[in-house]
Each structure stands twice: as C-alpha cells, then as structure tokens.
Amino acid sequence: MEQPDVDEPVFLISAAAELAGMHPQTLRQYDRLGLVVPQRRPGGGRRYSLRDVAVLREVQRMSQEEGINLAGIKRILHLAREVQRLEREVERLKPRADTGSRVFTSGPSGNVVIVERGKRVRRDEGRSLVLWHRER
C-alpha cells in the first residue's frame, strides 16, 4: 500500500479546520500572519496538506498549553524550519568514507593547513586557497 504524500494540498479550509479542531476563520488569520500558509488553487481557494494540519495542531498546542503568543510561535516555526534545512545541508555535505576528504584550516600565521584525522599533514606556504566540488 502506498504511503500518502503529507505535503499534497488536498484539504479545503473547512476540512483542515475540522481536522485541526479550529474554526476556519482561525486558519484564515494564521494564513494572514504567515504561521501556516496553505497552497492556493488557481481560483484562489486554500488547500491544506496533512503537514499543514499537523502544524496547525502544534500552533494550537503551543498557544493553549504553553501560553506562547502568535509572534513567538511564528518565530519558533521559522527556527524549526531553519534547523531542518540545516540538517539536510549537513547530510548533503557529509563526506563519504571513500572520497579521501580533507579539512583545510588556517594556521596562526594565516597559512593554509591541511588536516587529516586530527593531525597536521602539510602547510601550504602560498596565500591562496582554491575550493571546488565534484559535480553529481
């Protein structure tokens, strides 16, 4: 059986509001504030995904149980998305065991130092450093 796509915008505002236990006007307000921004259909109608509904529930929990105001919730949601983005970036940048990765750093004099497994390997006496990445 195929797993549903949690990002597929399938719910009308009335259905999303019911699933989140909120009034549709609350969802409109959250949209205006940028807390949960649903995708729009060509005619302008809002469509919410399962992920949007989960975020709506979390907004409600933070507001009611934690007493956090909407500005604070907006900041928390932004920071959570940024953490997820950075975690994906870290995974993407993790060196693979078979790549022969090296770490370059600057020594006390400003020269480039190549470090492998915590030990200084060699120092490049030049003042320039060229960085590149392999095309995938």
What is the tally of helical segments? 4
Q: What distance lies between the first and last C-alpha atoms, to the nearest angstrom? A: 32 Å
* Overall structural domain count: 2
Strand content: 5-15%
- Mean pLDDT level: 83
- Helix proportion range: 40-55%
* Strands in their spatial order, largest beta sheet: 3-4-5
Q: What is Rg? A: 24 Å
Output the CATH topology of the largest domain: Multidrug-efflux Transporter Regulator, Chain: A, Domain 2
Order of secondary-structure elements: HHEEHHEEE
Oligomeric status of the shown chains?
A: single chain
Molecular shape: elongated
Structure classification: alpha+beta
CATH architect. name of the largest domain = Orthogonal Bundle
Largest sheet: 3 strands, antiparallel
Contiguous low-pLDDT stretches (5 residues minimum) are none
Description:
Helix 1 crosses helix 2 and helix 1 crosses helix 3. This protein has 136 residues and is of the alpha+beta class. The protein is elongated, with a radius of gyration of 24 Å. It has helices at residues 13-20, 24-33, 50-64, 70-93, and strands spanning 39-40, 46-47, 103-106, 112-116, 119-124. The mean pLDDT is 83. The chain is built from 4 helices and 5 strands. 42% of the residues lie in helices and 14% in strands. The chain folds into 2 domains: 13-93, Orthogonal Bundle (Multidrug-efflux Transporter Regulator, Chain: A, Domain 2), CATH 1.10.1660.10; 96-136, no CATH class.
